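User: Predict the structure for this protein chain, please.
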Amino acid sequence: MRLSSTIIPAIVIVLCMNRLAYGGAWTQNAGKGQLIISQSYYQTSKFRDNSGRKQSQAKYQKHEFNPYLEYGLYDGITMGANLFLQYASQRPSGTNLEPNDYNYGLGDSEFFIRTRLWQQDGFVFSAEPMVKLHSPVSFDKQPAIGSNHPDTGLTFSAGYGFSSYGLNHFANIDLGYRYRFGEEKDQIKFAATFGISVHEQLMIMPQLFVTRRTNSGNAGGAYAESAANDYNLTKLQLSAIYKMDEQTSLQLGGFYHAHARNTGTGNGLMLAWWRRF
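Assistant: Here is the predicted structure, written as C-alpha cells:
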C-alpha cells in the first residue's frame, strides 16, 4: 500500500541544528496541514577551525523551541513557516568563576512554498523556493542568535514510499542552493532521510544532513556558534516516531556533528509533538 501524501510529510519532518525542519518531497492535501512543535538541546566544548583542526572553547549550550507549520493551499502546492525561539549561553573565560554570557529571543524565520512537479508509483518530485528573514535580536550581543542577513534559496526533493513485510517505509533526498545576502558565502544543502517502520505505530528514522559553503569564507565566529558563520557541517541524526493516533505523533532522537569547518562539533537531543489537521 502506497503512503498517502498527508502521512509522508508528518513522518519526514525532523530537527537539526540551525535549519531544523523540512518536509521532504510530499505536499499536503488542499485544506489540510500540520503543526510540529519541537524542542532541542545542543552543547559543545569543541569546534573545528577553518582548516578542520579541532580546538577547545568554553562550553556552549543552546535550547531551541521550533514551531513548524505547513498548509495545503491547493492540490500539489503547500506553503509553510519555520520559526525558531532560542536561548544560548557560554562561559566567556572557560572557567567556573565567570558567569555565563547568555542571549535569547526569536532566531531566523523561514517561509516557503513547496510545489509538486511529478508523482507516480510511489515516487514524487518537488521544488521548494524559500526566503529566510534574519533574527531581530541584536547581533552585537553574544552568543549570537540566528544570523544578521536574509537568505533565499531553492531546493529540489525526490521521495519514494513503499511497503515491505506489511509495513510502510520511505526514502527522501533533498538538494538545495542557498543565496546569502551580505558577506556570508552561499551554501549547498543536502539531506537524506530513511523511514523504517518496525511496527504500525513505530518508525525508526536515520538521517544525514550536509551543509557546504561555496568557498572557505571567514575564519571567525567560533565563539558565537552563529548561523551567520561560513561553515561546513555534516550531521548524523537518529530518531524514533511513535504514532499516538491518526492525528498525533511524538518523536524522540539525538544528533551528532560528525564533520565540521568553522563551527562546533557537539551533540544534542530533540523532542517533537506533531498534530495533523
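Residues 1-22, 219-223 have pLDDT under 50 and may be disordered.
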